[in-house]
Amino acid sequence: MAKTTRVVMPQLGESVHEGTIAKWLVKPGDKVVEFEPMLEVDT
Q1: Mean pLDDT score across all residues of the chain
Q2: What's the pTM?
Q3: How far apart are CA 29 and CA 4, in angstroms?
Q4: Is the N or the C terminus of the chain less surrounded, counting Cβ atoms within 10 Å?
Q5: How far apart are CA 11 and CA 15, in angstroms?
Q6: How far apart are CA 39 and CA 43, in angstroms?
Q7: Please, which pLDDT band fits residue 24 given cuts at 50, 70 and 90?
Q8: Measured between alpha carbons, how far is 26 from 13 in angstroms, rounded to an integer?
Q9: Domain spans of the chain?
Q10: What is the pLDDT of residue 7?
Q11: Dihedral-angle region of residue 22 (phi above 0 means left; psi in -120 to 50 means alpha; beta otherwise)
């Protein structure tokens, strides 16, 4: 059974209110550690 973990994206900047995921750096099922980049965001 897959484990689901909540991921919170930090604020991108004072004037930035939204962004789009440009690239995933991990694949489903990959193990990640705290503070490891998981994705790239375009604003």
Answers
A1: 88
A2: 0.68
A3: 10
A4: N
A5: 10
A6: 13
A7: very high
A8: 24
A9: 1-43
A10: 84
A11: alpha
